[in-house]
Prior knowledge:
This protein is 32% helix and 20% strand. It has 440 residues and is α+β, with helices and mostly antiparallel strands. It has a five-stranded parallel beta sheet, with helices on one face. It has a five-stranded antiparallel beta sheet with strand order 15-16-17-14-18. The protein has a three-stranded antiparallel beta sheet with strand order 5-9-6, with no helix packed on it. It is globular and about 65 Å long. The two termini are 34 Å apart.
Amino acid sequence: MAQPLTQAVPAQADRPRVAVIGGGWAGLAAAVELAAGARVTVFESARQLGGRARRVVIDDLPLDNGQHILLGAYTETLRLMRTVGAPETALCRLPLTLTQPRDGFRLRLPRLPAPWHLALGLAFARGCGLGEKIAAAHFMRALQADGYRLDHDISVADLLDRHRQSGALRRLMWEPLCLAALNTAPEIASAQVFANVLRDSLGGAAEATDLLLPTTDLGQLFPDAAARHLESHDASIRPGTRVRAIERPLAIDGEPFDHIVIATAPRHAASLLAGHPETAATAAMLSAYEHEPIGCAYLAYPDDIRPPEPMLGLESIGHERLGQWAFDRGALGGPRGLVSFVLSAEGAWDRLDDDALCRALHGELEAALGRDLPSPRWQRVLRERRATFSCRPNLPRPAMQTELRGLWLAGDYVYADYPGTLEGAVRSGVAAARGILAAG
């Protein structure tokens, strides 16, 4: 009888030595994908892993440096979570529901494949007119007919104008989706990247549009389990270690490597690339990137304060919006009465000090709920000034494999199809790892 074929696992000494600079989600994705076939060392300048999606502790309470939303379309993130043993129960899966109580708007997508989920969701949506619903359906059909490819990149605002998107659906669905996905205002955001996001979410499988809301802190969601997985594969993780230069031949502080993956923010990657003639042009490209801030405000109310849904829109008629969404952390595994507010992209919110911002957000939540609320017991604002690259039309994106042999890039800005999302970061890390393993 023929013996079953098995794939030989290379001996430890035969595996390539790979350094991953950056312990965010891109770097961890690359390291996890490499772990079975390479000797991996992760360098992280901070004391903890996770990058821009990490745990923070506020008054002994483990929270996050920002509220992150995942989608069912985040297939690589979910796969890697399973690989490292992170519990998917740490994600609350809900149908995509956009609710703006102040405006009487509500859209909920049923669990059906495209285009039926959007068609039925629009049919039963409240707070928007029939003409807007028909125009929105035509918009998605037109994108689908063109394979979600534009003849040339324009702003999201221009794309919506071109397809006659106006009124409540534009203000309460398309523009908030743009801000949430691209962290860039519709007036300057890339329509092509937005179309890519719509392709993989609203144009995808039945579960692709599901909201996946974390019910634990972001450290437990992936980075902690990834670290345990890497340690079980004899990988070395070096927190609190800043890499200031990459030496020739490939080495870090005299330690040689066969491959190095730079999985840092664009500005840090630029500083590491600038010292080599082969990568100077890429360094200049990344140095020219503009960035957008993200804020997260935590307001702790008495335990009996409960928003009607885990995620609530804060759009209100007649004034400039500050917060985009409010999340009931008590409904998502956190302390009862704790509400977190998402503040996306450059805007009026970032020009207010913390106290003024929290007062304004308190008022917006009162307006959304239609009632007075007691003053918060405590409040805290976290601001990431350069949280994501500004996702603008025709923004040049670097190649995964640099011109310097053995030097690779990973990060959300490398995965050109997507904006600055966790899924883009993870996909870029996986792609870099597979390129390295294929190269040997």
